[in-house]
Amino acid sequence: MIPHDVKPTSKVALILGGNGITGTYLIEHLLTLPESEWSRIIGVSRKPPSPDWLVHDLKLSPLDASQVTQGIGRLTWICADFLEESVEELIAKFKSGRVEGTTHVFFGAYVRIDGTGGPKEHVANTDMFERSIRASIGAAGKTVKRILLQIGAKWYGPHTRKTLPVPLRESLEPDVKGASFYIPQRDFLGSYAAECQQQGLTWDWVITAPYTVWGFTRASYQSLATTIALYATIQAHLGEPLHFPGNNNRWLGADDAICADLLAKFNVWCITTPQCGGELFNVSNGEVFSWEYMWQIFVRYFRCKPPVTSNRRLANPLYSLEKNLASHDGRYGKGSMVWKEIARKYDLDPRAEEYATWWFGDFSLGGSRLVLMSMAKARKFGWTGSVDCEEMVQNILAKMTRAKVIPSQRHIAKL
Ligand SMILES: NC(=O)c1ccc[n+]([C@@H]2O[C@H](COP(=O)([O-])OP(=O)(O)OC[C@H]3O[C@@H](n4cnc5c(N)ncnc54)[C@H](OP(=O)(O)O)[C@@H]3O)[C@@H](O)[C@H]2O)c1
């Protein structure tokens, strides 16, 4: 039941984009914190949360899981479409979803429409942010203390800027061409906070900028690790090398990542640390790796043939996952056909490949720039978290195995 004895000091989280890779890890993390600290957690997304996630990952009883969308329990859910519904409709829905008492609003919603960075994507994501924030404040404005907007490293234009400093520091101005909808989102947040202040509301904001988010969730496969793991399973089954979809600069240069679990902890730290108000922070694991090294972890785990190299350089750079594996124009691609066979043989989720973001793998690995995020500012503000990248990969693969999305080690040996 919804606790009626909510103490004035206990916090209520409203997570816009609760089904995403960011949102699910955030909810998983908040649920591990004491109820006396976070009394209610409210997810919002178009689709309801997956029953498998509620029961297997969050360990809710089937009865509790079935009541999440009915507004009963510590975790509750509102299904709403930030693009199809007006602010007034969203306010009404949020109110009936009992968002009253919300103290902290996390925004991690995202929609890809016409390819990364396209004009429709720009308009939709700007619109989605404005409507859902106006609705959150319209429904729970008096109690809201802080709003967190999550953007990404594209803020700095790693793919559009002529020269890119290493590492990327928050003092670098956003790149107008590359940052796309992040700039109007940031501008709206600042101006809306000032407008609300004049009406007596006192919330402030914080912005976090992760680089590539690594994790696994059933609801969103916008995760590089998930995409690579599905690709490696397919290549192992076919007996083909694990070609690297990037170029030699990426292969041999340094890279960094952010573990979705650490990102969740970072976002909670940012939204609750008083001195973080009104600031933008980069976030990464705090250590770097080369793809030449990281790729071997996947090669070994899936017992794949390594990519062909000569003097450490790739013989077949820029192998496109999208071209080689994706389905196009209603025609099933190689990835989909091979996946059906693998899923049947090893009793895996037959739909897993449908969600593989092949384009995202090409996009994330295809650039040639050295993108490294400075964590100096966050450390100065008191952040001490870090993650071992190799352990992060092992944990994600274990989670995917438990979810029956990739074969067990025993079955990989037979692929
Ligand atoms: N993933 C990464 O590697 C990465 C890296 C750096 C930065 N970022 C940034 O981080 C932010 C969050 O990204 P993410 O990867 O966590 O997102 P994601 O996994 O793609 O999840 C997006 C969420 O937005 C919701 N959503 C989409 N359209 C909606 C709509 N019309 N109405 C309501 N909800 C809607 C989805 O709900 P449904 O599932 O119900 O549709 C889902 O919960 C984005 O700005 C992204 O650019 C991501």
TrEMBL record:
Q: What is the lineage of its organism?
A: Eukaryota, Fungi, Fungi incertae sedis, Chytridiomycota, Chytridiomycota incertae sedis
Q: Which Pfam families does the entry link to?
A: PRISE
This chain belongs to the protein called NAD(P)-binding protein
What residue range is the signal peptide? none
Q: Which InterPro entries match?
A: NAD(P)-bd_dom_sf (IPR036291), PRISE-like_Rossmann-fold (IPR055222)
- The species is Gonapodya prolifera (strain JEL478) (Monoblepharis prolifera)
Q: Where in this chain does the record put each PRISE-like Rossmann-fold domain?
A: 13-307
